[in-house]
Amino acid sequence: MPDRLVVLYRGNRPPATALIERLADTVYATEDELPYLLPGADALLAWVTITPAIREAWPDNPEKAPRWVHASSAGVDSLLFPALVDDPGVVLTNARGVYDRPTAEYVLGLILALAKDFPGTWEHQRRREWRPRPSEGITGRRVLVWGTGPIGRAIARLLRAAGMRVCGAGRKARTDDPDFGTVHGSTALSAALTEADYVVLAAPLTEDTRGMVDASVLAAMKPGARLINVGRGGLVDEEALIDHLAAGRLAGAALDVFGQEPLPARSPLWDMPGVMISPHTAGETTSEREALVEVFLDNLTRHIEGRPLRNVVDKRRGYVVDETRPV
Q: What is the mean pLDDT of residues 184-200?
């Protein structure tokens, strides 16, 4: 049994706490309590991940730092601070696999909502206006999914099943990918950008991907295309996006993640035509919490028994590396 497991939570503790407590000496910490409870812990379950609290509470003495940190999220960018990354004795795992299908369903829903102008329909309903009008189809429309990890692959499979023409963007170009068909290298995207009706961002936030969708990328996109971001807000230069939306070069955007969360009330994105905003919930479902705990309990059992953990993050790259599938 681990000497001590700290569970960082905010608002609600994870479900199945009795199962966790049977396997580990468990203490629960809010973000304010974490600096007092983290030093000396054997493991940390980061039930909350998008927070600076873990970095700020991390012990200065490496001997007092946890040997294992599990993130209840797919993205781990907020955990990649030097003290954790540079310590070879700290293993970082994540919830890879839990969010794949839910996020793919969300992206399909966003594409349908944009193509069919559901926001406009709801606004006409609110005003009690009868406004018949045609809508766009999605069959045959081109989609570029930027990010070829498990979430990007789930998105590609579902959009293909809906009749869309999908390709990918990743670090390694190839033409025989089982889910994307063609994957464009991240340094040669111009042709794919000019052809895509939708560009979907599903990449992790790393030093290589931060700000990857800048003014030049937005300018290369097909006029009238739409941008969907279910990755991380830091992937996009928001000011450049606002400029391109205001100029009418893009037909719209669906944004689930932002550089600053919550999105400030002063942001122009709230009121821009053709823009849909959601509060970082693309992968959340009513059964998500139970699925997250199942992944953690499996890893906790492995940790206790000394077996290899699932979903070990390459701390230098910032994501789980699957050697059987290039990214």
A: 90
Tokens of 135: 């809508």
**Is residue 326 in a domain?**
no
Q: What average pLDDT does the segment 23-43 reach?
A: 97
Q: Which is the catalytic residue, given 261, 290, 307, 316? A: 261
Question: Exactly one of 70, 96, 184, 232 is catalytic; which is it?
Answer: 232
pTM: 0.95
Which range marks the domain in which residue 233 is found?
Answer: 100-277
Please return the burial class of 47, using the count of CB atoms within 10 Å of its CB with bins 0-12, 13-18 and 19+. buried
Residue 70: active-site member: no
Rounded CA-CA distance 69/251 in Å is 42
Which pLDDT does position 188 carry in this prediction?
73
User: Tokens at residue 134, please?
Assistant: 């045609």
Active site residue 21: no
The length of the chain, given as a count of residues: 327
Domains in the chain, number: 2
Tell the residue number behind the tokens 């997250």, with chain if given: 292
What is the pLDDT, as a whole number, of residue 327? 63
- Note if 288 is an active site residue: no
Give the whole-angstrom CA distance, residue 40 versus residue 25: 13
- Say how far apart CA 149 and CA 34 lie, in whole Å: 32
Are 33 and 73 a contacting pair, CB within 8 Å? no
Q: Do residues 75 and 223 both lie within one domain? A: no
Residue among 160, 280, 317, 325 flagged as catalytic: 280
Q: Which helix (H) or strand (E) holds 156?
A: helix 150-161
The answer for residues whose C-beta is within 8 angstroms of residue 117's C-beta and 6 or more apart is 133, 135
Q: What CATH number is associated with residue 115?
A: 3.40.50.720
* DSSP for 233-250, written as a single string: GGGB-HHHHHHHHHTTSS
* Contact between residue 45 and residue 7 where contact means Cβ atoms under 8 Å apart: yes
User: Cβ distance 67 to 24 under 8 Å?
Assistant: no
